[in-house]
Amino acid sequence: MAASLVPDFLESEPDAGTSADRGPGQAAPARTRTINAWDGLPLHVHEWGLPRGQGRLPLLCLPGLMRTGADFARLAAGFAAERPIVALDYAGRGRSGRSRKVQRYAAEACVTDVLDLAAALHMPRVVAVGTSFGGILAMGIGAVRPTLLAAVVLNDVGPEIGSVGLEAIRRFLAETPDLADLEAAVRHLKHWLPDLGITSDDGWRDAARLTYAPDAGGKWRPLWDAKIARLLDAPVPDLWPFFGALAHLPVLVVRGGKSQLLLPETVERMQKEHPGLRVVEVPGVGHAPTLAEPAVHAALAHFLDELD
């Protein structure tokens, strides 16, 4: 069962978007709600755009392993006029509840939460947009609930995970410092994630605000339960069968040009296995693109127009 709820240092934080310096448009403020998971754990949900049931197919946005739904605020700004956009803080991340059991944060449990979210919000068919871990969840949903998916966007992730990139994530997750202030959080991000493609001080501050939050004493702490790092101790399973479950669907792959997680040879094999696969690459960016870059926005807009 659930142990604790949202950490005190997140309770009063406003749900503001980011104004990162890549791509068109400004961040969109989210409408937020909390739903109860199957085990009673509260899950924080971000919504943008048209009300559900109106407009075009909704985007169901799935963030990275230790990320939150707020990462999609700028993506949402680009598509809010035409469709609903929904994103989730997984259990143990952001403003969602914490658990004593690390496996409550693993992919299988998160897939269940995503399926329950789609049912609770009456979304029978969606375009899943998955960044990193979120893309793995999208592949899992393709295997266990294929009728939910109209199409999938895989952001810097595929059925093989580059070992160098995975080790970098392990090292970053192992560092869970209490940082003195926002500027210390910025310096920490710049040290560990230099290839985010951010070019301005404001962009780095926004990235830090999406990664850390101040506690009651003013220290900036990660927006995820530190236990999540233990998930990476397990070997990566064979994900190619899960990618195969997307064979009947339109799939768009976004790759950071400097990514060490999604390697070019993996993309080449994905294209062979899925001949209709579309790929857009963001030069100079590592793991992972924001999806608000101009080239990605244009590719995604074209991809969605063809679906609708």
What does this structure look like?
With 308 residues, the protein is α/β, with parallel strands linked by helices. It has one domain: 3-Layer(aba) Sandwich (Rossmann fold). Helix content is 32%, strand content 18%. The protein contains 10 helices and 10 strands. It has an 8-stranded mixed sheet, with helices on both faces. Helix 3 crosses helix 4 and helix 6 crosses helix 7. The longest helix is centred in the middle third of the chain and has 14 residues. It is globular. 47% of the residues are buried. About 4% of the residues have low confidence.
What's the short version?
The chain is an alpha/beta fold and 308 residues long.
Can you lay out the helices and strands and say which pair or pack?
Layout: H1 8-11, E1 31-36, E2 42-49, E3 59-62, H2 73-79, E4 84-89, H3 107-120, E5 126-131, H4 133-144, E6 149-155, H5 163-174, H6 182-192, H7 201-209, E7 212-214, E8 220-222, H8 240-244, E9 251-256, H9 264-273, E10 278-282, H10 294-307
Parallel strand pairs: 3-4, 3-5, 5-6, 6-9, 9-10
Antiparallel strand pairs: 1-2, 2-4, 7-8
Helix pairs in contact: 3-4, 6-7
Task: Provide the descriptors you would attach to this structure in a database record.
alpha/beta; single chain; 18% strand; two-stranded antiparallel ribbon; 32% helix; 308 residues; 10 helices; Rossmann fold; eight-stranded mixed β-sheet; 10 strands
